[in-house]
Design a protein that fits this description.
13 helices, globular, homodimer, eight-stranded antiparallel β-sheet, two-stranded antiparallel ribbon, alpha+beta
C-alpha cells in the first residue's frame, strides 16, 4: 500500500518537527471525483463528520414539523456542541417538545468542550451530565424521531432500533455506500459508525448540499439542514471552534462538519461539490488545516471569507509565553489551487 | 524518503481506524546501535524527553550540594510535573533554597496537567501561575545553577546565558551531537531545543544510565539523577501518568521520560541500554504504546513490571458509556522481542 502523502507540516524554528499524512477528495453531486489526494477508497469511519446526514431523518420522518423544531434545534442536532449554557438550553427545549427527558439520553457523559463552561461546573460544584456530551443535540433529535415513529425510545442507539435503521438508511441513500453489520463499529456516543470510502462521504455531502439524486423527502430535509446550519453556525460547534468559524464565514456557501480521529466533511452548495478529509493518525489540528486549505482553494469569496480560511490553513504556533515558535501548515500536496 | 513504518494502530470494531508512523532506536552505552525502526538519523527535536540530561548541570555545577537539594527536588527538575499541590511545594522549596522567587521563572504559564488540581484552582478562584507549568521544576533547577555560577538569573532561558550554555554542553557531551545555532529551535517553555538524530538521544540516555564515556562530574551527576528518579517517580510526571507509572514499576531499572510531539527516551541502567522514540505526527498516545512495548521486550522483569508494560502497550479504548469499542496497540514492527 502506497502511504498517503504528507498533507500538513508542523514546524519549529526552520525545521519540520512533526507531520501528518492523509487523504482528501472533492466530488460533484453525481459522485464524480473532481480531485483526490491519497487513498480515498479505503473504508474509514466518518464519525461525527456525518452528523448533518444523520440528522436528515429528523426532518424526513416528520418529527421536525410535528414538534415544531426551530432552526437552532436542527443545527444542534447536526452538530458537536461545546456544552455551553446556550447549547444545553436548546437541547433541553428539543427534549421537552418531544416529551422526552435527559435521562433518556444514551450518549454517555463527558465534561463540556467549552473550557469556561467546564470551569463553571466546578465553581458551582455540579457534575457533568449526558446533556453536556457534544452529541446530546444529535441524540435529542434521535429521541424526537423515536417519538415520531411511535417507537419505544429505550435502546434507540442499538443498530436494530427503528431510529438507527432510519439513520443508516439515510446514510446509505446519501453516500451510496452500504451500511450493514459487516462495516459497523461503535461510536463514542454509542451509536453505530460505518466504515465507508472517503469518496462516499464526499458524495453524501455533495448531495446534502444540492439534493441531487435524493428522494424528495431527503432532498427537502437536506435543504432544511442547510438552512439551519447557515442560520445557527454557533450551534454546530461553539464560539471560536473550527466548524462554527468556517460555517459562519461561509454564510450558507459552506456546510462543514468535522469529527473525531481526523475526519472532516463539507458541502459547497453553490458549487455543487462535496469534500471529505481523513488524517491517517487521527489528528484534529491536521484535518482543520487541510479542510481550510481546500475550502479556500475552491471557494474564493469575499476577502473576509478568504482571510478566515487562509488563517486557518496556515497557523502560528506560540509557546507558553506567547512567542511564535513555529507553524502548522497545509503542504503543497493540498495546494492553493486544486 | 522511505516513510517510517506504522508502529501503532488504533482500532474500532475489527478495523484499523487511525495509525501512527514513527522511528525508534536502541543503543548501548558506546552508542552502538542494537536495534532500529525507521529513520533514526533525521534530526528531531527531543523536547522534554531530555529533561534528565538537561538536569545534569544542576548536580555537576555543584548547585545541588551547595543548596542541599533533595532527591525529590532533583527528580522534579528532571520531570514534567502535573501541577499538583505536592509538586508546587517541591518547586517552591527549591526556589527558596536558591534565594529565588517564582517571578523569576521564565517558563510561562499553563493550567495544571492534573485535572483535579486544575478544577481546584477554579473552585478557589485562583489563576494559574508559572509554578503550575509542567517545566517549573526544571526551571527552578536552572535558577539554582545560575546562582551557583554567580550569574545574573535574568534571561536564563536565552541561548547565550551561562546556564543555557552549561545545559547545551551537557547535552552535547551525553548525546555526542552538536548543539549550536544551526539546529536550534525554541521549546514550549522558552529554552532552546536542538534538533539531533534520534540515535543521539538514545546514546545520551544509555550514558545517563551507565556513566560510560562521560567526564567524572557528569557521570556522578547521572548517578544522582538516576537515584532521584528511582526514589521519586511521582515527581517526574504525576499519579497515573505514563512516566511515573513506568519508572515506579521499573524500580530503578527504567528511567523513562517522554516529551511533546511524540518524543520518548529511556535508560535501562542494568542492561546498559538507551532507547529513543519519535512518532512522526507527534501523538502522545502513540509514543507511550511504543515505548512500553520496547521496554517490555528488553526488560522482562517481575510479573508486576511485565503486567504494567504489557497493559500500556495494548490499551482498550472505551466510549463515553464505558463500552470497550477498540484498542490502541503497538504493531509487529515494534514487536514483542526486539
Amino acid at each position: 500500500m502506497t502511504p498517503n502523502p504528507v498533507v500538513v507540516e508542523v514546524s519549529r524554528g526552520d525545521r519540520v518537527e512533526s507531520f501528518h499524512r492523509g487523504a482528501a477528495v472533492v466530488v460533484d453531486a453525481r459522485g464524480i471525483i473532481i480531485h483526490t489526494i491519497g487513498d480515498t477508497q479505503r473504508p474509514i469511519y466518518p464519525r461525527s463528520a456525518v452528523k448533518p446526514l444523520q440528522a436528515l431523518p429528523l426532518v424526513a420522518s416528520g418529527a421536525a414539523d410535528r414538534f415544531g423544531l426551530s432552526l437552532a434545534e436542527l443545527a444542534i442536532a447536526s452538530g458537536s456542541h461545546a456544552g455551553t449554557a446556550d447549547h444545553l438550553s436548546v437541547v433541553e427545549g428539543m427534549l421537552r417538545k418531544a416529551g422526552s427527558t435527559p435521562v433518556q439520553l444514551e450518549c454517555g457523559t463527558h465534561r463540556p468542550f467549552d473550557e469556561a463552561s467546564s470551569r463553571d461546573l466546578d465553581a458551582r460544584g455540579i457534575q457533568a451530565t449526558p446533556l453536556h456530551n457534544n452529541c446530546s443535540g444529535k441524540h435529542a433529535g434521535f429521541l424526537c424521531v423515536a417519538r415520531a415513529l411511535d417507537a419505544d425510545p429505550t435502546g434507540y442507539t442499538e443498530p436494530a432500533h427503528p431510529v438507527m435503521r432510519e439513520v443508516a438508511a439515510a446514510l446509505a441513500a446519501t453516500t451510496g455506500a452500504s451500511h450493514d453489520t459487516a462495516n459497523r463499529g461503535t461510536d463514542g456516543c454509542s451509536i453505530p459508525t460505518f466504515a465507508i470510502p472517503l469518496s462516499a462521504v464526499a458524495t453524501g455531502f455533495a448531495r446534502l448540499g444540492t439534493g441531487t439524486d435524493l428522494p424528495d423527502s431527503l432532498a427537502r430535509a437536506a435543504a432544511r439542514i442547510r438552512e439551519a446550519v447557515a442560520a445557527h453556525p454557533e450551534m454546530v460547534a461553539g464560539a471560536g471552534r473550527f466548524d462554527t468559524r468556517v460555517n459562519a464565514a461561509g454564510g450558507g456557501a459552506i456546510l462543514c462538519k468535522c469529527g473525531a480521529e481526523g475526519m472532516g466533511a463539507a458541502a459547497l452548495p453553490t458549487l455543487g461539490l462535496g469534500i471529505a478529509v481523513k488524517i491517517d493518525d487521527g489528528a484534529s489540528r491536521a484535518v482543520e488545516v487541510v479542510m481550510a486549505r481546500i475550502l479556500g482553494s475552491l471557494l474564493r469569496g469575499t476577502s473576509e471569507v478568504d482571510a478566515v480560511l487562509d488563517g486557518l490553513a496556515d497557523q502560528a504556533l506560540q509557546n507558553w509565553r506567547g512567542t511564535v515558535i513555529g507553524r502548522v501548515q497545509a503542504t503543497h500536496h493540498v495546494g492553493r489551487t486544486l
